Amino acid sequence: MITFEHVGKRYGGRFEALSNIDFHMTRGEMVFLTGHSGAGKSSLLRLIMLLERPSRGRVLVAGHDLAGLHASQVPFYRRQIGVVFQDHQLLFDRSIYANVALPLEIQGVEPRDIARRVRAALDKVGLLHREKALPIELSGGEQQRVGIARAVVNKPALLLADEPTGNLDPQLSVDIMTLFEDFNRIGTTVVVASHDLALIARLRHRVLRLRDGRLVADQEAA
Ligand SMILES: Nc1ncnc2c1ncn2[C@@H]1O[C@H](COP(=O)(O)OP(=O)(O)OP(=O)(O)O)[C@@H](O)[C@H]1O
User: Fold this and answer.
1) ipTM, interface predicted TM-score of the complex
2) Residue limits of the ABC transporter domain (predicted)?
3) Residue 220 carries which DSSP code?
């Protein structure tokens, strides 16, 4: 599903934020990406999202060399990817329902289909009963679950999360990770960047460890 071949990323003319990264993830795998602050986790995810281009090497996703994608194809490419951020980036003046519906509205999905899909996504994260609420009325953990519902409403083949539990206490963090495992179990390929080593150790998945932009360990699931 994802292949990095000798990938390097340099911002401006400075040092390499990522250097010589090689790994392959098969479809349906779940992987944790870990490393210290500044190790390059977000940069690696941004290359997959095509928010950045590599300075060297190749990134292949779902069989496509991303360097070969024409600018006009990028929006279609991104639709296969759901993204969850640490601060969830919800729109605070809109209801939970409207936040989750937004990606489908942008794509021009029929309103009837939007309603069905938004409710299915909210149901999966346990928040169907809160669809009319505003984000401010929800706890931090619930807000993050709305962010996850919005990321999966399009049924993406690939789900990326950048420090999704960064602001949550340990029990809520476990709950959020369990949700990612649920989506992985139904076939979604999942990459979660996290520096929470204790949590990662409890969950048995492959771990890619970055240090100063290099991939220093690739441990298979225990
Ligand atoms: N747009 C950018 N322009 C210049 N330098 C950048 C940019 N984005 C990241 N960097 C640098 O690249 C290096 C890797 O950053 P990155 O955000 O990928 O690491 P990270 O492991 O995700 O860290 P954190 O957990 O703190 O977000 C850092 O030194 C950072 O300062």
Assistant:
1) 0.91
2) 2-221
3) P
C-alpha 133 – ligand 1 centre gap (Å): 35
Residue nearest to atom 29 of ligand 1 (CA): 38
CB count in 10 Å sphere of residue 112: 8
Mean pLDDT of the 115-127 span: 96
Q: At residue 71, does pLDDT exceed 80? A: yes
Asked if residue 141 belongs to a domain, the reply is yes
The rounded distance, in Å, linking the Cα atoms of 42 and 91 is: 22
44 lies in some domain: no
The first and second tokens of residue 206, run together, are 């492959």
Q: Is residue 121 part of a domain?
A: yes
Whether 43 lines ligand 1, by a CB cut-off of 6 Å, is yes
User: Which residue CA neighbors atom 1 of ligand 1 most closely?
Assistant: 11
DSSP 147: H
> Is 113 among the domain residues?
yes
Answer yes or no: is pLDDT of 116 > 90: yes
